[in-house]
């Protein structure tokens, strides 16, 4: 055996042992988490019903739940048209502001402006975008995108320069945030014949430098789009799912992205090769939402009757949310922390936090983050150089993940942190 082979095997063993140590650390930390409930107007209403009638059927589900980039604010909207802002930087209990809007207009999507800590945009299936000032919990501006259009999705790019919006069914418009949210250009999704109904864009996700936008459709396809200040170019359509793409999320170091679908599959795709490298097959129900932790080690998956956290490296189960907090609708990790917030279908929002007495997971998670950055820096050109319009992939090349690992593409390289 050559010295080079021995060195390679030794390095592989070290990485494997390191990953197993981090896995065990996360499992141990999750089990020690405390739960902190957000006592908003709905919680008080539900609590009174529980006290008087001994029932929890007061459902007012959360439609969307998002932290701002710094984690200093949490906002979520409900089916009754209300929105809640929580200032997490206030001393002691987070400061809460509740705003009741028109019950007939539901805020389906919340998206924070990364360049402004207090600016939040919401969409409600109308032709307008509402921009809020979270610090005062008031509406700052309302921008009409297109008269009589129906818009239910919107997402700021990571630098806050653009806002991607979806006008039903599959028109993606890029708005210039600094120029009064004016229209820059429009991308139309998959073209169809008049006899076939156009697929609808069901989810959006930006990579971390704002050069790539994913559009997930209700027919299971995903458009990978390259974005610039002047145009959107489709690089490829990925054919990896048979059901609606409900949620997508990028790894913070842009090594991979995770896709959740109504077909019960959660797939992990390498961003360099655009191949599916892992399928988390433990889900038996349609996936409602997913999220990726700050170091890319954990993937949270929420279904109708479960909310679990898995290892992105091996697909192993790390934590099951206790049944008393289920069924859930959303799970979101707090930026730059291991903690997360969970919204239950009954409407209650709970944050799972590291007890101050143990707090030992933070330095380890920081080590994982630094290790991930080191590996990313050694992987070659940036995504802007790797993914150009002259991509070697074609739409006809399907990368459908198979439940039987032996049937996967032989050229899908092994995924490692």
Describe this protein's structure:
- The chain is α+β, with helices and mostly antiparallel strands and 417 residues long.
- Helix content is 15%, strand content 39%.
- It has helices at residues 3-31, 41-53, 361-377, 383-386, and strands spanning 34-38, 62-67, 73-78, 82-87, 95-100, 109-112, 119-123, 128-133, 138-144, 151-156, 162-167, 171-176, 182-188, 201-206, 212-217, 221-227, 232-239, 245-250, 256-261, 266-270, 276-280, 287-292, 298-303, 306-311, 317-320, 328-333, 340-344, 349-353.
- A four-stranded antiparallel β-sheet has the order 1-28-27-26, with no helix packed on it. It has a four-stranded antiparallel β-sheet with strand order 2-3-4-5, with no helix packed on it.
- Strand 15 (212-217) and strand 16 (221-227) form a beta hairpin.
- Helix 1 packs antiparallel against helix 3.
- The chain is globular, with a radius of gyration of 22 Å.
- The relative contact order is 0.12.
- The model is unreliable at 48-57 and 359-417 (pLDDT under 50).
- Residues 374-388 have a biased composition (Polar residues).
- WD repeats lie at residues 238-273.
- Belongs to the THOC3 family.
- Keywords: Repeat, WD repeat.
- Residues 401-417 have a biased composition (Basic residues).
